Amino acid sequence: MSAPFRIAVLISGRGSNLQALIDAQQAGALPVEILLVASNKATAEGLRKAEAAGIPTLALDPAVYPDRASYDHALFSRVAASGPDLIVLAGFMRIIDPAAVAGWHGRMINIHPSLLPKYPGLKTHQRAIAAGDTVHGASVHFVTAELDGGPVIAQVELPILPGDTPDALAERLLRHEHRLLCHCVAQIAAGRITLGDSGVLVEGQPLGEPLRLFAD
């Protein structure tokens, strides 16, 4: 039997997407090994979720490093030492130094709560409602030096309802984010999705536009 596809997950908060990966793995729906969960916050609730699942954890405080580049070098060196095939940013709320990103070209993905290229950065639900959008969603993309600007692999859409608040919209989207992230990790683990010179490849063929999952 071949060795399982290995991932490391980076988080900053409650780790709901991490828990979705753990649940899918434990249910046999996601054939990966989660080697490490790392965070920039020792108090991140997601670290406790990892510990409960028996997954090694790492917490590094950016405040003890002189600059972002030094911190990212330390963090990604330790992550690399765990031996992952893929790094999954699942609510990792830091901009990553370009040198660290370059070392993981095509081997690091991020989930972002908007239909990229709309609304990179923060407060995406609030911004979508304020703009009068009727559709919102989430995206999984390969990570590049540009904030939330890497090639998009797949997206999930759901309608913005009359009277939606940012919190209500975020909560309604969350379970679809979980499904989207697990789907993308599974496809990458199976070798179906890769990053080529021209962008995302599916079975070796260029992806013209992001794959679409639709809210049920």
Could you name the CATH homologous superfamily? Answer: Formyl transferase, N-terminal domain
Using only C-alpha atoms, the radius of gyration works out to 17 Å
CATH fold type: Rossmann fold
CATH class type: Alpha Beta
How many strands, what sense, and barrel or not for the largest sheet? 8 strands, mixed
Q: What spatial form do the alpha-carbon principal axes imply?
A: globular
- DSSP, total strands: 11
Strand order of the largest sheet: 3-2-1-4-5-6-7-11
Distance between the termini: 36 Å
> Would you identify the regions where 5 or more consecutive residues have pLDDT less than 50?
none
Task: Provide the structure class.
Answer: alpha/beta
Oligomer: single chain
Q: How large a portion of the residues is in β-strands, by DSSP E? A: 25-35%
Total helices: the number is: 6
What is the CATH-assigned architecture?
A: 3-Layer(aba) Sandwich
Mean pLDDT: 96
Relative helix content: 25-40%
In words, what does this structure look like?
This protein is α/β, with parallel strands linked by helices and 216 residues long. The protein has one domain: Rossmann fold (3-Layer(aba) Sandwich). 32% of the residues lie in helices and 26% in strands. It contains six helices and eleven strands. The strands form two sheets. The chain has an eight-stranded mixed β-sheet with strand order 3-2-1-4-5-6-7-11, covered by helices on one side. The chain has a three-stranded antiparallel β-sheet with strand order 8-9-10. Strand 1 (5-11), helix 1 (16-26) and strand 2 form a beta-alpha-beta unit. The longest helix has 24 residues, at 166-189.
